[in-house]
Amino acid sequence: MAQTDVVHLAELVGALSYALDLTEGQPVGHSMRACWIGVHVGIEMGLSPSEITDLYYTVLLKDIGCSTTAARVCQLYLTDDIMFKRKAKFLDHTAPQFLRYLIANAGMKQNLIDRFRLVIDTALQTGEISYELTNTRCHRGADIARQMRFSEAVAQGITDLDEHWDGKGLPRKKTGTDIALTARIALLAQVVDVFFVSQGVEAAMAEVKRRSGSWFDPALVEALLRIGADPAFWATLSEDTLKERVVAFETVKDARAVDDDYLDDIAGAFAEVIDAKTPYTSGHSDRVALFSNMIAVELGLSDAECRKLRRSALLHDIGKLGVSNSILDKPGKLDDQEWAEIKQHPALGRTVLARVGAFHDLSEVAGNHHERLDGKGYPCGLAGDQIDFHSRIVAVADVFDALTADRPYRQAMSADQALVIVDEMTGPALDADCVAALKRALIALEAAKAA
Predict the structure, then answer these.
(1) Which of 7, 23, 78, 389 has the most CB atoms less than 10 A away?
(2) CATH 3.40.50.300 fits 260-450, yes or no
C-alpha cells in the first residue's frame, strides 16, 4: 500500500461500526457515540493508555456477533429481528416488562390465538432462549475480534458485554469485578446512548442511576455522573464532527497502519459477519470472492487488481445487515414493500464502505452489483458503461453462486443448470466477457480435478 493510501485501524473500524449499527437497528452512529461515552468514562477512571485502547475497540466492536442471532430471533419470535432488537435495548429484563414486550412485538402477523400461544411458549422458555442467543452472539463476536487481530482484552470485553454487576446477566452470570472492565464500561455506554438519543440527557442519566448496582458498576456510574455534568460532553454526541473526534482518540495512539494483509483479514472477518445474517448465505461472500477472482485471472487483471476485487466481493453484501431476516429468509414471494427494502441493501453498503478512503473503490461494487447492463437493475438503474468493470465481475459471480446455493424459496441448482440461466441473462443483465471468463475458469477447474 502506498504511503498516501495509509489508513489507520481506528478509522477503518469506526466506519465498519456503522454496519453493526444497522443489524442492531440502532440510529446511525450508535457505536461511535457509545465509544465517545465509554472512553471518557475510562479516562475519568484513570485507565492506562493500553487499557483505553482495548476499551475503544471493545465498544466499537461490541455488536460484531449480533448478526449470528438475527435468523434465530425471527424464527423464535416471528417478527422483524431489527425492530425486535432495537426495542429490546430499552428493557431491563424484569419478568413483567419482558412479558409486556413480547405481547406488543412477537408474532405480529399471526392470528390472535397463535400469537397468544407464541407469547406463552417463549415466555416460559425465556431463560433458555436468552442464554442461547447471548452465548452465541458474545462468543462468536469474540472469535471474530480475534480473527481481526485484536487483543484478548477486547475479545473478553465482547464476551462479557451482557454480564451484570449483580450476577443476573448472561451468559456466565459473572458478578462484580469478575466481569471484564471493558465490558462493564461498554454496557454502560450502550445504554446511555440508547436513552440519550431517544429521550434526552435527563432520561439517560435517570436510567443509569436506576440500574446502578444491578446492571452497572456503581463506581462507573459515579464517573459518568461527574463527566455528564458538563453540557459540552453531551453536545459533542450530536455534532457532525463526532466521527473525526472519535477517530482522533488515538491517544489510543494505536495509529496502527493497516497494510494490505491486514485489510484482507478485516474484509474476511466482516464477510463472516455478513454471511452469518442468514443460514442461506453461509459462505456466500467467500464463494463470490473465489468466483470473482477466477474471472479476473481469466481476464488478465493484475495481482493488485485481483486483490482489491476479492475484498470488494467479500464485502459486496454488507448492506444486507440492514435488512430484516423476516425478508431475507422469507420462503414465499416478497410483497412490494419487502422488495423495496431488499433493493436498498446495495445503497446501504455503498454508504458504509464509502466512509473509509481505503474502501472507496469497494463501495462502488457494493452499490452496483445488482445493476444491469440494460438499466433495469437496482438501486440506481445504471446502464452500460455507467457500471464499472469490477461490479460487472462481481455481478456474474454473485448470480452464479446464488443459483448454485440453497435459498429459502428453492433448492440449489447444478452448475450446468445455473449456466443456462446465466446465458439467458448475458447481454441484457450480465457482461458477456465476464460470463465467458467464468465458463473458461470452470472448465479449467474441472480439467484440473480430473487430472
Answers:
(1) 23
(2) no
Is 320 a residue of the active site?
yes
| Domain 3-67+132-244 -> CATH class | mainly alpha
Can you name the residues that pair with 430 across neighbouring β-strands?
426
* Per-position DSSP letters for 384-400, written without gaps between them: GGGS-HHHHHHHHHHHH
pLDDT at 318: 96
Set 174, 320, 343, 449: catalytic member: 320
Model pTM score? 0.92
| pLDDT at res. 126 | 87
Judge whether 362 and 119 are in contact, CB under 8 Å.
no
pLDDT, position 276: 95
C-alpha cell at 231: 453540557
List, by residue range, all CATH 1.10.3210.10 domains of the chain. Answer: 3-67+132-244, 260-450
Query: What is the C-alpha separation between 178 and 195, in angstroms, rounded?
Result: 27
Distance CA 414, CA 403 (A): 8
Per-residue confidence (pLDDT) for residue 412, from 0 to 100: 86
Per DSSP, 330 falls in state -
Beta strands in 213-316 (DSSP E): none
Which residues of the chain are under the pLDDT cut of 50?
1-4
**Alpha helices, H only, 106-200:** 112-124, 126-147, 152-159, 181-199
What are phi and psi for residue 55, nearest 5 degrees?
A: -65, -45
Say if CB 51 and CB 156 are below 8 A apart: no
HSE-up of 421 (CA within 13 Å, CB side)? Answer: 13
- Integer Cα distance of 296 and 392 in angstroms: 11
